[in-house]
Amino acid sequence: MIEKYELNNKLLKGLLKDNFWMVIFMIVVGPIYWKLRNGTEFILDEQLLWIFIGVIAVMNIPSILIYLNYYLQNRKTKFTLDTELKRISITHNGITKQYGNDEIEKSTYHLAIYYKNAIDRAGRMPMMISDFGYWDLQFKNGDRYYMTNILHNFIHDTPKVYNTKYRFRFFPFIIKADPKEALKLKEQREKTQTEKFVKQFKNKTDTQLNEILKNERKYQREAVEAARILLGKKNVG
Fold it and tell me: What integer pLDDT is reported at residue 187 of this predicted model?
C-alpha cells in the first residue's frame, strides 16, 4: 500500500474553524449567559470589543507562528510511504531520495504537550496549537528531514516506522538542535481511532473492505485508513 503526503490546507481550515466557534461563543453564548445571570442586556462597548479582539489575537499568535515555521520548512516537501516494501521516498527542494526502513537512524515525533495525556492522564485542556506536530526523521547517511502536520494530518496516528520516540513541548516549533532525549510511549497509550477501526474490521472480508474504499466519502477517514491497512496485510500474507 502506498501513502502519499504533501502540502494541504486541512490544518489551516481547523484553525479557522476554531476561531469561528470562539467568535460565536463571545458574541452569542456570552451575552446569553450574561442576560440569564444578571437579568440585563449585555452591552458590547468599544473597550470590550478591543478586549475581545486582543484575546483572539493572543490566542492565534502561537498558532500563526508555528504554521509559518512549518510552511517555510515544508513548502517544497512531500513524501511517499510504501508500507509493503517498507520504503520511504522524500522530495525536498526538488531533490527526491528513497530510503529503506533499515536505513533509518532515528525517528522522533514532536507533539504539543496536550497529547502527553496518552501517557500520564493529566487531562490537559486542548488548545488551538494542539494539532501541531512534526516528524524528525534521521538516516544513517546523515540525511535529516522535518515532516510537519501540514503534510496531511498524520502525526497523531500510529507511527509510520518502528521504534519511533516522542517529544512533547508546549509550543512544538521545529528545533534542529534539541538536547532533551525523546521517550517511548508506554504500553498504556490510548489506541488511535484508526487502530480501533483495525480491530473492529479485522473479521471483515476483502469484499467488505474494498466496499469501504469504494465509498470512502461515507466513512470516517480513520475507517478508510483501517481498511487499507487490513487489505495491505492480507496482500502481503
Answer: 42
Calculated CA dihedral for residues 15, 17, 18, 20, nearest 10 degrees = 120
| Residues 6 or more apart whose Cβ sits within 8 Å of residue 83 | 1, 2, 3, 229, 232
Distance CA(217)–CA(194), nearest Å, equals 16
Summarised one tens digit per residue, pLDDT across range 70-89 is: 999 999 999 998 877 689 99
What is the 8-class DSSP label of residue 164? -
Strand order in 144-148's β-sheet?
144-148, 133-139, 104-112, 165-169
- Tell me which DSSP letter residue 172 carries: -
User: pLDDT tens digit string along 131-176?
Assistant: 889 999 999 999 999 999 898 777 777 787 878 888 888 888 898 8
Q: What is the dihedral of CA 34, 40, 41, 47, to 10 degrees?
A: -70
